Amino acid sequence: MVKIGNIELPDFPLLLAPMEDVSDPPFRALCKENGADVVYTEFISSEGLIRDAAKSVMKLDIYEKERPVGIQIFGANLDSMLRSVEIVEKTKPDIIDINFGCPVKKVVSKGAGAGILKDVDLMVSLTEAMVKHTNLPITVKTRLGWDHDSIRIVEVAERLQDVGCKAISIHGRTRAQMYKGSADWAPISEVKNNQRMHIPVFGNGDVDTPEKAMEMRDRYGLDGCMIGRAAIGYPWFFNEVKHYFKTGEYLEVPTIAQRTEMARRHLQMAIDWKGPILGVFETRRHYTNYFKGIPHFKEHRMKMVTSDDAKDVFAAFDEVEAKFGDTRIPQIG
Ligand SMILES: Cc1cc2nc3c(=O)[nH]c(=O)nc-3n(C[C@H](O)[C@H](O)[C@H](O)COP(=O)(O)O)c2cc1C
């Protein structure tokens, strides 16, 4: 069994990664239904929260059915981070996660996200202050280091643990790599192999087949796996990994009719949650994956992503289902 604070999770839990504009309540709920053991919100700006910026505050919404859920916040200012912990606590998440991994310039330039990898002392002291400020478990998501020459993740993880961080998820890239090249899980394994580490160490980066998840567990010895891009428009991925672990065989992939049904539910939940305009707009990025592999998908996709009216999108789903309903197209392997 793996534990984050007092939260008990199955062996080798699968975590839905925090993803901006992706990991919203409807998508998290679908991933949870399909086997995710822990889900994280997209990152939320601590400065936005304390200004009461509507966009940041809306990101605090959680559904009961998606628990355990971690709310992820970012920032580099101690006072703002502590005040945002107080705001986040009121919405009763199970976990508060700190983003020390976001590589984008506008975040990094303020010393937040992966920017803090240049100042490990600040990273540790911010974490310590947040741990002391709340009874909720604090977890950290980070990268291997700022760049190849400054990887000190073994030491960093140990120091975070020692100030009370309850779990660490590590994306096997440096900030300098952004999303290029492939993730290196060996340094994450070194973190896990450190005799002094006792909190869960979760691996992240490029897991898009059940075999890769298994490699993270068996070859790299990690405690669980955080999955991002492979789940976009494909929430089945979590159960596919679990089935493979249990049986050594692939779970039968969904039919296009099942994919269409998932896309319909996703869109409807998004509309119910954020209204018809944002609901239609923000679900668009999932369609390419929901319908991956369909012949001549482009023409259907155009209908799904160009109309602002949900009715047209649902009609495009119906068309795809009528044409290809029984087909199964492998997504993985
Ligand atoms: C669209 C998108 C948005 C992301 N937003 C966040 C975020 O808000 N917080 C964060 O910690 N990481 C974010 N990430 C990084 C992912 O959590 C994850 O570390 C990365 O995608 C590697 O995992 P994967 O190969 O399984 O996708 C984002 C990634 C993507 C693709």
TrEMBL record:
An annotated Gene Ontology molecular function: tRNA dihydrouridine synthase activity
One Pfam family per UniProt: Dus
Residues at the active site: C102
InterPro entries reported in the protein's UniProt record: Aldolase_TIM, DUS-like_FMN-bd, DUS_fam, DusB-like, tRNA-dHydroUridine_Synthase_C, tRNA_hU_synthase_CS
UniProt keyword terms in alphabetical order: Flavoprotein, FMN, NADP, Nucleotide-binding, Oxidoreductase, RNA-binding, tRNA processing, tRNA-binding
CDD domains: DUS_like_FMN
Obligatory cofactor(s): FMN
Known EC number: 1.3.1.-
Domain DUS-like FMN-binding span(s) in chain numbering: 15-311
Protein residues bound to FMN: Q72, K141, H171, G228, R229
Chemical reaction(s) catalysed: a 5,6-dihydrouridine in tRNA + NADP(+) = a uridine in tRNA + NADPH + H(+); a 5,6-dihydrouridine in tRNA + NAD(+) = a uridine in tRNA + NADH + H(+)
PANTHER family referenced in this protein's UniProt entry, alphabetically: TRNA-DIHYDROURIDINE(47) SYNTHASE [NAD(P)(+)]-LIKE (PTHR45846:SF1)
Similarity field: Belongs to the dus family.
Function in brief: Catalyzes the synthesis of 5,6-dihydrouridine (D), a modified base found in the D-loop of most tRNAs, via the reduction of the C5-C6 double bond in target uridines.
Protein name: tRNA-dihydrouridine synthase
